[in-house]
Every structure is written in structure tokens, then in C-alpha cells.
Amino acid sequence: MQSKLIQDRQPPSKGAATVGVLRVGSKSDPNKVAGALAGTIREHGKAELQTIGAGALNQAVKAIAIARGFLAPGGIDLLCYPAFVDVEIDGNERTAIKLFVEPRQ
Question: What pLDDT is stored for residue 6 in this prediction?
Fold first, then answer.
């Protein structure tokens, strides 16, 4: 299953650097996603999670909550804001929710 971003309905997050999108599914392990998210935040200073469906969004939100615990000892708290995006999966256009995550300043 291949997916590609067709169009962001919202402007991209601040900064010119492109950050890889972490795709989260309904069967994703929130602890593993949280570890990847924390690592991406530490390395790039921001991250994006892409979800399609309620189950995937639920796992992504859990992962953000867990990642806050991973990053808190280092004095990093997270801010998250959502946006709708259109993606193409196997030739079909779908609406996804992308969660932009960055440190609170």
C-alpha cells in the first residue's frame, strides 16, 4: 500500500526543513510510536504524525501523551495541532488527519 500526500489543507509547520511523516495505524503500538516521536523531536525539533481513521488517531494521541513523559525529564513539553490533508492511497484519494508536534516554547 503506497500513499502520497496530495495537498495540505493547512500551511506546513514553521521552519523550512522537511521532517519525515510518521504514519500511525490503528494497530500501531503507542509506546513504539512515542519512542519514534521523542527521537524525532530531539533530532529535528518537530514531528508530524499522519492518521487515517478514528483508531489510528486514537493511537497517535496516546503516543503523544506517552512521548510527553519521555521528554519531560529533559525539560521539553509538547504542543500539538491538527490539520486535514488529502492523501492518495493505491490510486484513491482519502482524507487524513496530520498532527503537527513541536516543543512548547
Answer: 42
CA dist., res. 11 & res. 105, Å (int)? 20
**Number of compact structural domains in the chain:** 1
User: 10 Å Cβ neighbour count for 11?
Assistant: 7
Examine residue 71 and state whether it is found in any structural domain, yes or no: yes
Nearest to 23 by CA among 98, 82, 84, 93: 98
Closest CA to 21 of 8, 104, 58: 8
Query: Over the stretch 62-90, which tens digit does the pLDDT of each residue have?
Result: 999 999 999 999 999 999 999 999 999 99
